[in-house]
Amino acid sequence: MPADINSFDALAGRMPDAALASQDGLVAHGGDLEPQTLLCAYSRGLFPWFNAGQPILWWSPDPRCLLKPDDFHLSRTTCRKLRRLPFELTINRDFAAVMRACAAPRQGQPGTWITAAMMDAYGRLHNLGYAHSVEAWHGGSLAGGLYGIAMGRAFFGESMFHLAPEASRAALSALVALLKNLQFLFIDCQQETPHMLRMGAASVPRLRFLAMLREALARRDYHPGSGEICPWRPWFGLGSIGLLGEKWRQIIH
Hints:
Strands 5-6-7-8-9-4-10 form a seven-stranded mixed β-sheet, with helices on both faces. It has a three-stranded antiparallel β-sheet with strand order 1-3-2, with helices on one face. It has helices spanning 5-13, 35-43, 76-83, 95-103, 116-127, 167-181, 194-198, 206-216, 245-251, and strands at residues 26-29, 47-48, 57-59, 64-67, 88-91, 131-138, 141-151, 154-162, 186-190, 202-204. The chain is built from nine helices and ten strands. Helix 1 (5-13) packs across helix 2 (35-43). A hairpin with a 2-residue loop joins strand 7 and strand 8. It starts with a helix and ends with a helix.
């Protein structure tokens, strides 16, 4: 598939309509996990979620769980712990390690949907500047983190993990600080969880989500002739969350 904006628009126009999803949120099956396919799907409110041995399944649940950066909040207990600054917070230092940790077996779960094919696909998106990780380090070791896709002013959260208490919340608060600075409209949490609701996320009807997504992607910022594979400029060279230290301190106070 040619990697250019015209092919992106043509492919996006052929994507199934998220508004026609089944009651459980399934929209379609099949296709591929090429970078441009994935970005087109996210731009239309779809995301892949399937187990090994299944075809690629594309979903758009109703309602959709979203977290607006300005609505994010932490408990007093968590804020007190984070103010002691036990974690070093970074962006894109080790995307592959975050994906591997998110894919590791968890108590009460028989397997993982983050298959080798998914790790390869999102690794390619990371190299292109569209998939990103936030890491929380403790004592030089990776203690927690998250990863997702950034397009326009929307961040599509995929998964998070922690190996130490508060590490995933530290990484999420760092992401929120970054997105506030970039004037993002929301983090797409996909499925509602008590964990995210406690931190300010809310469920919105699918049609409302799709309208918010159109607003988040309304401003195209690519450079014609640049060879970019979608209309929204990738992120490169973000460096350490320390650059956003003041915004991060506002979040944890």
